[in-house]
Structures are given as structure tokens and as C-alpha cells.
Amino acid sequence: MKTVIIEDEKPASRKLERMLSNFPDIELIAKIESVEEGIAWFSENEHPQLIFSDIVLGDGLSFDIFEKVPTKGFIIYTTAFDQYTLKAFKLNSIDYLLKPILEEDLSGAVEKFKSFIPSGDTIGSQDIKQLIRKEKSILSRVLVKIGYNLKIVQTHEISCFFSENKIVYLQTEDRIYPSDFTLDELVETLDEKKFFRVNRQFIINSDYIKNIHTSPYYKVELNFQPEEEITVSRDRVKDFKDWLVS
To answer: What CATH number is given for 141-244 in this structure?
Structure first.
């Protein structure tokens, strides 16, 4: 099984290479360190059956590679951040390993890959989409950018997410941060017991509810929130009340 590693941190790349050497049927044919290098390599070479790819690279996200050069290979993403799970499973991912990678997790991911390959057959992208199990992963932390720095925000620190001018922001006790998510993606990945989308603009965290007004319409006050009023859409009121007591 021909394999490629996409990883910009040399120690992590070497460690993964050593771990893969324990699998005699895996042949490593290339190591790629950037989005630019990845686009060039996949444009010029036959694609491998299996790809191990970090997500956050020095010049962007590895998703950019496969959006520019679609691949028929399976991808196992390796990353320190779990906020990209939903997008990963939309791009031929069969597994998502959080760093530091454990031997048993890697072995499980490789075995999952093998289970998806019919004996002696090649497999196309449409087959991949049918075979991938889109396992829901609950988002526990969000990576945000502050100038030239990155910061990890735990979701339990977030009182709400809201959209403004086509950008989704998150509110904490200290400040507001922009994110790379859409509200639809967040609904799919947040803990539904804690977070609820009250309208088109807001997703709120039950831990930060300060007060709920019910007349003349449902309005929520959070301990920390932007200046905008947070109202519950009429068609969401029943679901909202059920969520509060679930």
C-alpha cells in the first residue's frame, strides 16, 4: 500500500514514519511539508492509496491541497486540534487522529483503511463517499487567530457563537474572537446538550444563561454576550424549552 505523509514538523514526521515502519505492507513514497509542495506533488504524481496528513501547515490548511487537486486516496488526518473534524470527513477522511498519536490508535486507523478496500479492486471517489462512516465528534476546543498568534479556546469557556457580516464569532468572558466555522458546521459538532441554536444568528451555551424573558417574545440574557439582543425564533421556542430541561 503506497503511502504519503503530509507534515510540516520534522520530529512529528519522523515519528510517524517510524510508527508506520511496523506495518510491512505500507510503503512510504513521499513526505510533504507544505500546501504548495502538496499541490505540486499531487498534480504531478500518481496518488497513493493512503495519505497521513496534518491539517495546520505553515502556509495554510492541508484541506487546500485536496480542494485544488481532488484525490481518490483515503486520508487519515493527524492534528493537535479537533475543530476540523467535520470538514475532514467531507474530504475522503476515514479517521482523525489527535496528537500525540498512540500506537493503538494508529493501528486501528490502518485496520479501518484496510476494511474499506475490496480485495484486488480499486476504488473511486464515489465509492469512498459511500464507505466513509461519518462519526460525529463533539467539538471540545476551538483554534482562533489573534494577529500572528494562535490561541486555543475550550468550548466550555464560550457563552455563545454568533454571525455578523458573514463571519462567525465566539464570545468568552474576556473578549470576542472570529472563527473559521459556519453556524451550520457548529450545530453538527458542538455538544447538543450544552449548545442550542436559538435563531439564524446565535448559538448559545446553557451554562451562561442568566435570564429568560417570555413576554412579548422569548429573549435570552447571557452572562457574557455581544450587544445584540438574543431572541428565540418562534419556530424554535418548543425545541428551546425541551432543550432546557433535557
So the answer is: 2.40.50.1020
CA distance 139 to 188: 9
CATH 3.40.50.2300 fits 2-116, yes or no: yes
The burial class, CB within 10 Å (0-12 / 13-18 / 19+), for 158 is buried
- 241, exposed or middle or buried, with CB in 10 Å at 0-12, 13-18, 19+? middle
The burial of 40, by beta-carbon neighbours within 10 Å (0-12 exposed, 13-18 middle, 19 or more buried), is given as middle
Backbone dihedral region for residue 92 (phi beyond 0: left; psi -120 to 50: alpha; all else: beta): left
HSE-up of residue 141 (Cα within 13 Å, Cβ side):
11
Tell me the whole-structure pTM to 2 decimals.
0.53
C-alpha 99/C-alpha 78 separation (Å) is 7
In the chain, where the domains are located: 2-116, 141-244
Residues 107-144: tens digit of each pLDDT: 988 988 887 765 444 444 444 444 443 444 678 888 88
